[in-house]
Design goal:
15% of the residues lie in helices and 28% in strands. The radius of gyration is 26 Å and the shape is flat. The chain has three domains: 87 residues, Udp-n-acetylmuramoylalanyl-d-glutamate--2,6- Diaminopimelate Ligase, Chain: A, domain 1 (3-Layer(aba) Sandwich); 203 residues, Hexapeptide repeat proteins (UDP N-Acetylglucosamine Acyltransferase, domain 1, 3 Solenoid), CATH 2.160.10; 30 residues, no CATH class. With 337 residues, it is α/β, with parallel strands linked by helices.
């Protein structure tokens, strides 16, 4: 599949500089691009790579297009334009409809005739799988689960009972949705498990990465909003609510009954304590520990910055002395007064 540069410009409303008849059939990085490839450049820090690229065309911000003499498409958001063109050049491959004979499907389950069920899948009673779905090999769908139209479950996905997954979602291999939440009551020297009676409800256009776990609610439900993007190895505890279009990077852990607003971003290894609320449009850099409510949109960070070990050890020791130092300064201030 190939497109003329003029066709891409028209389809995605981009300004064209150079040869309209240039043919594009693949995408690549600036360093690796060659004939037929289109790449992108987001800013001045990549100008040296831009100068040396062999791409047939490059997507550029208007601020830097004069510094490139080759074919270009101009966009206020080159990365987004690149993503749209990449999706056009590399459409998703859909599997043929049908149920593999090795799969076990309960007689009272409903599977739309256009859905695809691969090898060794187990589908329990009253599961409802809508049109265009793909269920990967080795997956498990528990009783009363509902899967919306055109949703894809990659190989070895586990969906526990009563889970609801919306339209056009992708759940990657190894993720576990609707598992029992971590709820226990203290009974003397032991812990008594509390029944987890809720479920997980996932909206439309959600992406969930490999080996991510989302626990079902204890009483109410665990809710994942529309357009949420969750990376690999994320844990979301029972009764968490995540607002629309929030993105969560790998190795993040979110404790129970926390509410996260819309359009938030949580970078890698962020930790969130239980029973707090985070407002819309709050963004957290990597390894930030969120211990209290966030009520003002913005960018938040926490942690000690990286430095050479000898210096870090000295500063860590001094950090322990801060309280004592504070008291000394306070006492001196009182004496001066």
């Amino acid at each position: 599949m190939s497109f003329l540069l003029s066709e891409l410009a028209t389809r995605f409303d981009l300004r064209l500089k150079g040869l309209p008849e240039a043919k594009i059939w693949a995408v690549a990085s600036l360093q690796d691009a060659g004939k037929g490839d289109i790449s992108f450049c987001t800013g001045h820090r990549h100008l040296s790579e831009l100068e040396g690229t062999k791409a047939t065309a490059v997507i550029l911000h208007p601020d830097i297009f004069e510094q490139y003499q080759g074919n270009a498409l101009l966009s206020e958001n080159p990365h987004l334009a690149f993503a749209r063109i990449a999706r056009l050049l590399y459409p998703e491959r859909r599997k043929p409809a049908g149920i593999h004979p090795s799969s076990i499907v309960h007689a009272e389950a409903f599977i739309h005739e256009t859905a695809s069920v691969a090898e060794n899948v187990i589908i329990e009673k009253s599961v409802n799988i809508a049109a265009g779905c793909e269920i990967g090999a080795g997956s498990f769908l528990g009783e009363d689960t509902v899967i919306g139209e055109d949703t894809v479950l990659k190989n070895n996905t586990t969906i526990h009972h009563e889970t609801v997954v919306g339209r056009n979602c992708i759940l990657h291999s190894g993720c576990v949705i609707g598992s029992e939440g971590f709820g226990h009551a203290r009974e003397g020297d032991h812990w008594l498990p509390i029944p987890q009676l809720g479920k997980v409800v996932i909206g439309n256009d959600v992406r969930i990465g490999a080996n991510t776990t989302i626990d079902r609610g204890a009483l109410g439900d665990t809710l994942i909003g529309n357009g949420v993007k969750i990376d690999n190895l994320v844990h979301i505890a029972h009764n968490v609510c995540i607002g629309d279009d929030t993105a969560i990077a790998a190795c993040t852990g979110i404790a129970g009954s926390t509410n996260i607003g819309k359009r938030c971003t949580l970078a890698g290894q962020v930790g969130v304590v239980d029973n707090i609320s985070i407002c819309d449009d709050a963004h957290f850099t990597g390894q930030t520990a969120i211990r209290s409510d966030i009520t003002v949109p913005g960018i938040y960070s926490a942690g000690i910055l990286l430095e050479e070990t000898r210096s870090w050890l000295k500063n860590a020791t001094r950090f322990k002395q801060l309280n004592s130092l504070f008291k000394q300064v306070r006492d001196l201030s009182k004496k001066q007064d």
